[in-house]
Design brief:
The protein has a single domain, classed as 3-Layer(aba) Sandwich (Rossmann fold), CATH 3.40.50.150. The protein has 196 residues and is α/β, with parallel strands linked by helices.
Length: 196
């Protein structure tokens, strides 16, 4: 995550969290959890204020949330009742330690040329047969939003190519839906579901 993007979450993290829909976890989380064995060990990269982790824990999963922003890790820790580690994507070194890796609207802050190395680390962290989910904003190249945050804004074909370059996934599916961004800006979203 670059300096300006990190600064946004350090300074405006609470505002960002309060602007999210107050209906609980991400709508894509339940279908993802339904694909996992009971009690699966899940790594969350970029947990935000911890709402997805809170929901998955309540469903009985062994969730390990983390965030690259110290401020967001603190907010998540307040919600969850335990210390949430600060972990940048490039610092992931786990090897076959998780059944799943969940990345809700987080990896999209990486530049296109940075993405494959991080996806390689995610693949390495998964146990054989493990699942990875991530969401990305669609578009045609890296740029900043009106709040100064960097996004890769990738078309689906280039996103799939980056995942294919990164690791030998046994399954890789990308679906696209219409949605919104912070400030209620209409935004296309690509959802990635990959199996090791």
């Amino acid at each position: 995550m670059d300096r300006e993007t990190l600064q946004f979450y350090e300074q405006r993290g609470r505002e960002w969290a309060d602007a999210l829909p107050h209906t609980g976890a991400s709508p894509e989380l339940d279908p993802f959890l339904d694909l996992l064995p009971a009690g699966a060990r899940i790594l969350e990269l970029g947990c935000g204020d911890g709402r997805d982790a809170e929901y998955a824990i309540a469903r009985g999963f062994d969730v390990h949330p983390s965030d690259g922003s110290p401020n967001m890790a603190r907010l998540a820790g307040e919600r969850l009742g335990f210390d949430v580690p600060v972990l940048r994507f490039s610092e992931l070194e786990a090897v076959e330690a998780f059944d799943a890796v969940w990345c809700q609207a987080t990896l999209l802050h990486l530049a296109e040329d940075e993405l494959p190395a991080v996806v390689t680390g995610i693949h390495q962290a998964l146990r054989p047969g493990g699942l990875h989910w991530a969401s990305f904003k669609g578009g045609n190249g890296g740029a900043r939003d009106p709040h100064g945050r960097f996004y890769s804004y990738l078309p689906a074909a280039r996103l799939k190519a980056a995942y294919r370059r990164a690791a030998p996934w046994s399954g890789l599916d990308i679906s696209t839906r219409d949605g919104f961004s912070f400030g209620k800006v209409p935004t296309p979203w690509h959802n990635v579901l990959a199996r090791k």
